[in-house]
Amino acid sequence: MDIIVCIRQTPMLIDEIKFTADEKSVDAANLKRHINEWDLYALELALRIKAKDGAKVTAISVGDTGAEEALYYCLAAEADEAILIEREEAKYLDNWMIAKLIYAVISVRPYDLILTGLQGEDDGCAEVGGILAQLLKIPQSAVVIEIKSLSKDGSIVIQRELEDGFSDIRRVKMPALLTIQTGINQPRYVSSMRRRAIKTKSKITRIPLSDLSLDFSNFHPRKSIRRLILPEISSSKLEYIKGSTGTEQAENLIGKLTEKGLF
Amino acid sequence: MEDQNIEDSEAQILDMVSRCRNCNYCYSDCPLFESTRGLPAQGPSGLTTAIYYAIRWNLLEGKDAEDLRDLLYSCTTCGSCELRCKKSATGIPIVEMIEASRRILLEKMIGPLPEQVKVLEALEMEGNPYGEPEEKRTNWLEEIDENLLEQVKVIKGEEQVETMLFVGCTASYERDLLDIPRSIMKIMNHLDTNYGILKQEKCCGDPALRIGEAGLFEQLMEFNTENLKNAGAKRVVTISPHCYNSFKKEYHNLKDELEIKHYTEFFADQLEAGNLVIKKRLHSNITYQDPCYLGKKNGVYEAPRQILEEIAGDHFIEMERNRADSLCCGGGGGRIYAEVEEIKRLSEIRVQEALDVGAEIIVTACPWCYIQLTDGVKTSGNENKIEVKDLSELLAGSL
Fold it and tell me: What tens digit of pLDDT does each residue of B79-118 get?
């Protein structure tokens, strides 16, 4: 069984986010990046299927040299192969373009299951998985929270998260693409020693854009960002509800909530 | 860790565990055994037996390994079992084995506990376990009175100082603990000390090493060692006993070149030399919680007591269990970042022991003990009966 996991590096949200002067992108200077949280769950799922049923796990990423760290992490975690589709970091790629690049690589390789994180920590669009499945013309299921079974007939039974605690269970014919929700498993921790050691043992397959069989004449973003907006910092205030008895405190609390139109 | 190193570690663990004669004296001193259901595998020799058979029967994979992980990571690494084993049995380095086993589990991608993963990521990316931005490490100085800042040098590059105050992560980022570095600065100024604080300080690495991330510890050790040496310091004074223990025992390129002092030792020396004079004595009953990484791990029992006796005289009362017999607060060994099984919280047991001797203040000299005990006072409903103070706060207030 061949499993391909799509990996994205996203900015860590610890640091203060700054925008470029045109307010169209995040200022990458001094920004630390890590593997998109949802993608770590997808990777772990692939590795657990490999451990249980046997599979070849390939991690794939579109990025610059910074994405190498993410791919080495995947190899150190026991992925079998890592592919980097080289891109110029400065050039904006929308999710359609990213999916198209991954499609160009995957479509000429064997695959049974493609896993992506449900969404990116950066844009939160949840687009790459859906577009990639459409390009490959394979079934896709989103927000997967459990793998029930893998059948020998080439199908997979999965559980999806719906709204308000609902979920459904469905059988999907493979090859298929699943977008993975956090909490489906507990991603492993890959030690710094393992990550250092893997660099001397394994290599990343680097694919320049020029090697891809893609028509680049029409390879432009389908959407563009007009403006990024920082959230307003709320000036929240802590207030103790006064009252000498519980009843008095409850009455005062109800009064405050009513005053704010919340009750 | 390479496969060969894992095999070597496993062989060392097997060799050491085989020296255990199962006398079980260690159980009598183990805080884990006291705070959990008390199953044999929740005590020192039970843990080491579990490690022994996990290695011999090749069970370091799958669900069995996860169960072993949960047991191993519940240890506070306080060292009580080792002291007992040295005194009454064959002197096995039990905690060393537990930590070596954690390193193996981590390299095999079974450890650490899920809650500790973010801690390791934060240590690597930001140099502190709390996930706070590294560039905001010295922001606490903005909240310190200007007159206190006149004497301290914030070392950014080539400046040299005689004494370096290593603030540590908890005192740097935890605003509720701001009074601790503030008090230490007051005392340093009172002594007219030529001292500094590193602008580029990073975690000493203790949490990484206790959790089993030896590679990350090495990175942090190299960073801090270089910065401390570049500043030309002759001595490092630490706030946290965990930083103290790391510098003193685990920083191989530092421990022989610099004098390493916990602040209680540094100030006790000054008290003895007559440079510090206590002017205001305390009339409340106080007791002292020995931080394990100061007391049990490094034998520093008397320096804090010397100061407290000077401050409080007869109002300083020992708890029944003190010095090497004292009970761990439960925060060490990476446990402060994770929820582990506790039928009874260690911090609550300790708060009760302090109340039992009539103490109105529990004094400690460790930021983690301070946090654990403060929580223990709240969760046991004793907020009106007892309060927690760091020794530095009492000393600064008595000058």
Answer: 999 999 999 999 999 999 999 999 999 999 999 999 999 9
H helix or E strand, kind and range, residue A59: strand A56-63
The 10s digit of each residue's pLDDT in B316-338 is 999 999 999 999 999 999 999 99
Q: Which of B9, B109, B209 to mutate to test the interface with A (most CBs of A within 10 A)?
A: B109
H helix or E strand, kind and range, residue A49 = helix A37-53
Contact B97, B14 (CB under 8 A): no
Burial label for A170, CB within 10 Å (0-12, 13-18, 19+), is middle
Please give the domain boundaries of chain B with CATH numbers for all domains: 2-111 (1.10.1060.10), 116-271 (1.20.1050), 275-398 (3.40.50)
B1, pLDDT greater than 70: no
Listed by start position, the domains of chain A span 2-218, 232-263
Average pLDDT (B365-393) is 96
Q: For residues B12-24, give the mean pLDDT.
A: 91
Residues paired with B288 in a beta bridge: B363
Nearest to A145 by CA among A131, A129, A162, A130: A162
SS3 assignment, position A138: coil
Hey, of A13, A40, A50, A192, which one would you mutate to test binding to chain B, going by the most B CBs within 10 A of its CB? A192
Rounded-to-integer distance, Cα B306 and Cα B313, Å: 10
Kindly report the pTM of this predicted structure.
Answer: 0.92
Q: Give ipTM to 2 decimals.
A: 0.91
Q: Residue B62: pLDDT band by 50, 70, 90 thresholds?
A: confident
Give the A:B interface size as CB pairs under 8 Å: 49
Q: What does DSSP assign to residue B332?
A: T
Per-residue pLDDT, B304: 98
A16 touches chain B (CB under 8 A): yes
pLDDT given for residue B2 in this prediction: 65
Give yes or no for a contact between B367 and B168, defined as CB atoms under 8 angstroms apart. yes
Q: How far apart are CA B191 and CA B14, in angstroms?
A: 51
- pLDDT tens across A176-195, in order? 999 999 999 999 999 999 99
Q: Are B350 and B289 in contact (CB under 8 A)?
A: yes
Q: What is the pLDDT of residues A92-126, one digit of tens each?
A: 899 999 999 999 999 999 999 999 999 999 889 99
A50 half-sphere exposure, CB direction, 13 A CA radius: 18
Output the CA torsion sign for B292, B293, B298, B301: negative
Contact B20, B44 (CB under 8 A): no
| Distance of alpha carbon A237 from alpha carbon A253, whole angstroms | 15
**Nearest residue to A25 via CA among A145, A167, A123, A112:** A123
In chain A, the residue whose alpha carbon lies closest to the alpha carbon of B124 is A192
Q: For B225-266, what is each residue's pLDDT tens digit?
A: 999 999 999 999 999 999 999 999 999 988 889 999 999 999
Helices (H), chain B: 3-17, 31-35, 44-56, 62-72, 80-88, 94-107, 114-126, 146-149, 169-173, 179-190, 206-211, 214-230, 241-245, 263-272, 302-312, 346-356, 367-379, 391-398
Note the CATH number of domain A2-218.
Answer: 3.40.50.620
Type of residue at A249: Q
Which residues of chain A are within 8 Å of residue B115 when distances are taken between CB atoms? none
Query: Which residue among A188, A189, A197 sits closest to B2, beta carbon to beta carbon?
Result: A197
